[in-house]
Design goal:
It is a single chain. With about 750 residues, the chain is α/β, with parallel strands linked by helices. It has a domain at about 490-630: Rossmann fold (3-Layer(aba) Sandwich), CATH 3.40.50. It is about 45% helix and about 15% strand. Strands 2, 3, 4, 5, 6, 7, 8 and 9 form an eight-stranded mixed beta sheet that branches. Helix 13 packs across helix 29 (about 710-725), helix 15 (about 310-320) runs parallel beside helix 16 (about 340-350) and helix 25 (about 635-640) runs antiparallel to helix 26 (about 645-670). The chain starts with a helix and ends with a helix. Bound molecules: adenosine-5'-diphosphate and magnesium ion. Adenosine-5'-diphosphate binds near residues 333, 335, 338, 461 and 620.
Length: about 750
């Protein structure tokens, strides 16, 4: 079987242009949606299915509903079943005014008419429909004043193609209009305005994909070895594709989708496994001698004992360092778990071996902060730490670059600018990346090239949910600091409204009288840094003159020069300042254990992980710490103000719900992993990592948030396969090699590193 596969090109890798019904125009638009090959098209799966068995005429629906409204509608089985009516839009209009306005659409078929109603979002719905177009409307029926209605039904446009359809050379063999009327499930494909313009509405996709499936399915090669099919109890690729696009019943959909999801995950993980295997077995790294005299000196100088978790992680790292294979390790640990000490300890081992170590931070402010932290931890230990950032004067910069090149700079702290051209290292052997989601797999690869395969430790300050770390960092070994230093008390977090501010101030004053210090943080709103600054300055002056005239306040914001920032921070550290008023510049890296109160103003404006980071600035000493989230009762006010524009009002309400979830999550838990999970749910993976450039893979069928079990299994299978057969030489793995060769060229190269 495999010999056939090796000689004939895999049909899945063919470009879609040769398909019936796909001309240049469509191909161009589809490309924008990531559909270029037959594989892409076949994995373009329906968004949902219209269940033919639930389709009724309006008359049938009326009889079902009115025969015995109470009984019928209260019966669980019936209530849970949605009915679908296929009809055309007869008319629509907005009724009522202001808050009470609603959108009413009259749907009709051969047997009668009924209403569809939406409360709110009127402006939006108004633009959505056209008189005469055909809709499939699903929901549970109800009635008002004897009129049959669907309230907030789900709607699918199933109109036949619009005027701009490309000419088809042949009538498709599948008549979907018939399918719709005769039985089974009708797939509804995701579409968009742009796709619709070239005739690729849901119906258009049905035709194109239907055609391709009919013609090409017999030529689709199985992509997985038989032993995996039986281990995972998954069906053949051909069957899965057939059933996902031509479903006969809901019951076979689950296993078909599962098969396609597994396929996506498996090939993603195979690539990671090959990469990791390539690094581990084919590349030679540095084999450090772990004498750790300097590291011991450091640990002995600390005023605290390392936690068990820190010790365990240091052991993981030093084992990797002493091996001749390059280390690629991810260190996860919540804010305040003490990652810095761990990183520094391992950097000292590199230094002791005569190598340079680099500590890379995501921003310049952080790099400055880190270089200070490292320098103060190394007080009395003879190691040269240098900071390299863009803001330095030419002369100083030249001086530093020189130090780096000669090797007298033993630890170099900076941002990704460290890896630009012009920065030459004498002997780079160890790289620590404090990354906070900001660098993807590719960036990591490029920086490794600066040294002779230096060992790399990636630290994540905001914990990444496990599912994501498996996809993003699947090629790394992982160590977790799952324990906070012993003397820490969990931070108490409360939500207070602006109206309760006076009592918050009293509370803060009481704590300060007990010897503590506090932060007041104001949000930075991107649109206008100037205005923000003004807000922080105004608040600072107000707090100083009207609220705490007898206390010392300091102001910290991004516009200050680094000397000014230093000075304020130093005074805060020395307890010359009671309250530090700040913008989010203090989000990371600041470490004043006596500061035990964090007041966050307009907390509803912050993202979850940002709130968690800010909260992490307190709870660093042995005193009980508090985080007070101040929020306006902004919702009601805003909603009222926007009531004339229902769309905006609804957006505001959605925004509020999200903000409430965020604030509630903060109050409920201190666990960074839980917070990250919620954050991910609220924002979605793309947004979670800032932008798409994050290197986060996108799956068409699978969902990394919900298909976690399958992801785990695919990962285990893929890694086991590569471990057993790293060059995919065994006959049963020919299908995998072949699939990689035709669909994942990049990975195929990895495989041949041997
Ligand atoms: P992270 O980078 O993981 O957020 P840090 O490394 O900045 O955390 O450590 C937070 C604070 O805890 C620092 O003041 C650090 O000196 C202190 N710290 C680190 N390890 C311990 C420990 N084992 N016991 C007590 N304090 C510790
Ligand atoms: Mg840190």
């Amino acid at each position: 079987m495999s010999s056939v596969a090796l000689t004939s090109p895999n049909i899945l890798s063919q470009p879609i242009q040769f398909l019936k019904g796909i001309g240049e125009r469509r191909a161009d638009v589809l490309k924008k949606f990531g559909v270029q090959t037959v594989h892409d098209l076949f994995f373009y799966v329906p968004r949902r299915y219209l269940d033919r068995t639930s389709i009724v005429t309006i008359e049938q629906l009326r009889q079902t509903y009115f025969r015995s409204p109470d009984q019928t509608m209260n019966e669980a089985a019936d209530v849970q079943k949605d009915f679908t009516v296929v009809g055309d839009v007869r008319s629509f209009r907005v009724m009522g005014m202001g808050k009470k306005s609603r959108f009413v659409l009259i749907l009709g078929d051969d047997t009668g008419t009924m209403q569809c109603i939406w409360f709110g979002g009127v402006q939006y719905w108004k633009t959505k429909f056209q008189i005469g177009e055909t809709l499939a409307v699903s929901g549970q029926p109800s009635a008002f004043g004897g009129v049959l209605q669907f309230v907030h039904p789900s709607v699918d446009r199933i109109a036949e193609r619009n005027a701009e359809i490309e000419v088809q050379e042949e009538t498709p063999q599948v008549d979907w209009t018939k399918t719709l009327n005769t039985g089974g499930l009708v797939p509804l494909y995701p579409s968009s305005k742009e796709l619709e313009r070239v005739g690729l509405d849901s119906g258009g996709f049905r035709r194109v994909i239907g055609n391709a499936i009919q013609k090409l399915l017999p030529r689709v090669d199985e992509s997985l070895p038989p032993y995996l099919l039986s281990r995972q109890k998954i069906i053949a690729l051909r069957d899965a594709l057939q059933r996902v696009h031509f479903p006969k019943g809901m019951d076979e959909l689950g296993e078909s989708l599962r098969r396609l999801k597994y396929d996506e995950f498996f090939y993603f993980q195979i690539k990671l496994a090959l990469r990791r295997n390539g690094i581990k077995t084919e590349m030679n790294g540095i084999s450090f001698k772990v004498q750790s005299k300097l590291a011991r000196q450091l640990v002995d100088s600390l005023s605290f004992k390392l936690t068990q978790a820190q010790i365990r992680v240091i052991k993981d790292i030093t084992e990797d360092m002493s091996s001749s294979k390059p280390m690629n390790r991810l260190l996860q640990g919540d804010v305040g778990s003490g990652k810095t000490i761990v990183a520094l300890t391992s950097m000292l081992i590199a230094v002791e071996n005569g190598y340079q170590a680099v500590f890379m931070a995501p921003t310049e402010i952080l790099a400055e902060q880190h270089s200070k932290t490292l320098a103060s931890l190394l007080k009395g230990i003879d190691v040269n730490v240098r900071l390299l950032v863009g803001a330095q004067r030419t002369k100083l910069r030249r001086d530093i670059l020189d130090d780096v090149q000669r090797g007298s700079a033993q630890i170099v702290v900076g941002t990704h600018a460290l890896f630009e051209k012009g920065v030459e290292f004498a002997n780079l052997g160890y790289v620590v990346i404090d990354e906070q989601h900001r660098f993807g797999v590719l960036q990591r690869q490029s920086l490794q090239k600066k040294g002779a395969n230096p060992d790399v430790l990636v630290m994540t300050a905001t914990p990444i949910p496990r599912t994501l770390s498996l996809t993003l960092y699947g090629d790394l070994d992982v160590s977790i600091i799952n324990e906070l230093p012993k003397d820490r008390k969990p931070i108490k977090t409360v939500l207070r409204y602006e109206e309760e501010k006076a009592s918050v101030f009293t509370f803060v004053r009481d704590e300060i009288n007990k010897g503590r210090q506090a932060y007041f943080v104001y949000p930075l709103v991107e649109e206008s840094e100037k205005l923000d600054l003004k807000a922080a300055t105004v608040h600072y002056e107000q707090l100083q003159s009207a609220v705490f005239p007898d206390l010392k306040l300091g102001l910290l914001h991004g516009r200050l020069s680094s000397e000014e920032k230093d000075e304020v921070m130093q005074r805060f550290k020395n307890k010359e300042i009671h309250i530090l008023v700040a913008t989010t510049v203090i989000e990371v890296g600041i470490d004043v254990p006596n500061a035990s109160i964090m007041v966050i103003e307009n907390a509803e404006r912050f993202g979850l992980s940002q709130l968690h980071q800010l909260r992490g600035r307190v709870g660093r000493g042995s005193e009980q710490s508090f985080c007070i989230l101040l929020s306006k009762k902004w919702i009601a006010a805003k909603a009222n103000r926007l009531s004339a524009d229902p769309v905006k009002m609804h957006e505001a309400i959605d925004e509020q719900r999200l903000a409430e979830r965020r604030l509630a999550t903060m109050v409920q838990t201190n666990d960074g992993f839980k917070i990250a999970e919620v954050d991910l749910q609220l924002r979605g993976p793309g947004d979670f990592f800032g932008t798409r450039q994050s290197g986060l893979p996108e799956f068409r069928v699978a969902d990394i948030l919900t298909d976690t079990v399958l992801l785990d299994e695919a990962r285990r299978d893929a890694f086991e396969l590569v471990e057993k057969d790293p060059h995919l030489k065994l006959p049963e793995h020919h299908v995998v090699a072949e699939h990689l060769r035709s669909l994942h060229r990049d990975a195929f190269a990895l495989m041949k590193i041997a």
